[in-house]
Design brief:
Structural class: mainly alpha
Helix content: 55-70%
Shape: globular
Number of strands: 0
Radius of gyration: 23 Å
Number of helices: 17
Length: 472
């Protein structure tokens, strides 16, 4: 069930009415309703994978209790939990990748084997709900939280439908207390949620889905078009994936607000970053912070020697790339970002823009800030070529064609407007990712609501694409 479908809108209305008008008196009843509807929502993709979701939920719920109640076997139970999660994730998501690469490696030394290749569909959202469960177990092991004995509450934390298939990756310390506490309807929160939903639909349906047509055309025909058009293709994909994933996140945050929940931030206008380190504090925040807390810091973080800090940095970026998919393109993409990040780390500039916002007290950036943002955007867009390409060879070939035919006139220029519009609106909203479309003038505010709503309706007739991050 896609967020940008009529079925989801109908589903959301029905669940909302039941939640606030039928089940509002008892917290337990609300949680059972949310859990049931989350499983219905997930079952729309493939009802068979509901058993996998339930199994993953049961495993981490059980290991959480075992770790908490054990005195001498906490580490054993922790590793068993990690092993079970990685086995499930590895089997469905990475088995074919490792089998094919093992075959190729053996062929290099003269051994020819035919591995068994699985013909299965990747369970939607498996990377996200697996990481939900793992963070829960890690936090119990580190004594940051106490496990809940109520299975329904834990299951709601794992499978809450707004975040189930593409995040944000929640922490039990943040979401579970909200599940356990009675929710009261808030008009202000509901309005904030509707604004987020409206802006999310605009980014997805109008911006991302429209640009996807040009991006597909350019990447499929890159050998026969000008290098400047290939540059536009990389720029278009940068905005496409932002509109797609940030649009999804805004809808998820907005829907959660309608039900009285506050989810973690996942985007804070990353294309206004002044270096790569700031970009990663603003892009897919829940994932980057997950790897920081559960991989980078346990490896020693920045408290070890410089060579080990560099090693740790490469590990988290390469693993983060591999998390996105079983393809060398994602690993190369992660490696590129590691290479861009390390110089900032070695010069102690990786925390330079940790707290402020670009042009924080002015309407326009300084010349220095502008070129910093432009340079960061160019580097990020270059790396996105590997993320978008089906294989590394094609990505390299795309880049070669781009530079060798750079000065010919671009032929796919109509998409520029879909780059400029979201960036201009985002610039006005850059101080807070939650306060979207909050214009003080009522006339301007409602004019924006109506304009965006009408545009979404018109474009939704033609644009009904799936979300990019559903494949991860």
């Amino acid at each position: 069930m896609l967020f940008n479908s009529f079925e989801f809108i109908l589903f959301l209305i029905i669940v909302y009415v039941l939640y606030w008008f039928v089940f509002s008196k008892k917290l337990a009843a609300q949680n059972i309703l949310i859990l049931s509807c989350s499983y219905v929502f997930y079952g729309f993709w493939n009802w068979r994978f509901l058993f996998l979701l339930l199994l993953s939920t049961l495993i981490d719920y059980g290991f959480g209790l075992l770790i908490h109640n054990s005195k001498n076997r906490k580490k054993l139970f922790l590793w068993l939990s990690i092993f079970n999660n990685l086995i499930v994730l590895g089997f469905f998501k990475y088995y074919n990748f490792f089998a094919a690469n093992a075959q190729a490696s053996l062929a290099l030394i003269g051994f020819h084997v035919e591995p068994y290749i699985l013909d299965i569909v990747l369970p939607v959202g498996i990377s996200f709900y697996t990481f939900h469960g793992m963070s829960y177990v890690f936090d119990i092991y580190n004594e940051k939280i106490v496990p809940t004995k109520n299975f329904i509450e834990y299951a709601v934390f794992v499978s809450f439908f707004p975040l189930l298939v593409a995040g944000p990756i929640e922490r039990a310390s943040h979401l579970l207390p909200q599940v356990q506490k009675k929710r009261e309807f808030s008009y202000t929160r509901a309005v904030e949620g509707l604004r987020l939903i409206l802006w999310g639909y605009f980014l997805k349906v109008v911006i991302s889905d429209t640009l996807s047509v040009s991006v597909t055309d350019i990447f499929q025909n890159y050998k026969s078009i000008s290098g400047s058009t290939l540059v536009l293709g990389a720029i278009y994909f940068s905005i496409q994936i932002y509109g797609d994933f940030c649009g999804y996140t805004n809808i998820a945050l907005g829907v959660a607000k309608l039900f009285g929940f506050e989810l973690l931030s996942n985007f804070k206008y990353p294309y206004f970053s002044r270096n790569i380190a700031e970009f990663w504090r603003r892009w897919h925040i829940s994932l980057s912070s997950w790897f920081r807390d559960y991989l980078y810091i346990p490896l020693g973080g920045a408290r070890v020697s410089k060579p080990k800090v560099v090693r740790n940095t490469f590990i988290i970026f390469l693993v983060s790339g591999f998390w996105h998919g079983a393809n060398w393109t994602f690993i190369v993409w992660g490696g590129i970002h590691a290479l861009l990040f390390v110089p900032l780390l070695l010069t102690n500039n990786n925390r330079k823009y940790a707290t402020d916002v670009v042009a924080q007290h002015t309407s326009l950036p300084t010349a220095t800030e502008f070129f910093q943002m432009l340079g960061t955007f160019i580097l990020v867009s270059f790396a996105w070529i590997f993320f978008r390409a089906p294989d590394v060879g094609m990505a390299v070939d795309y880049i070669i064609h781009m530079f060798t035919h750079l000065f010919a006139m671009p032929t796919r220029r109509l998409g520029i407007i879909y780059v400029i519009v979201p960036l201009l609106i985002d610039w006005q909203q850059r101080h807070s990712e939650r306060s979207v479309l909050c214009y003080r003038n009522r006339f301007v505010r409602w004019a924006m609501y109506l304009a965006l709503g009408a545009t979404i309706i018109v474009y939704s007739v033609y644009n009904q694409g799936s979300f990019i991050y559903f494949q991860f």
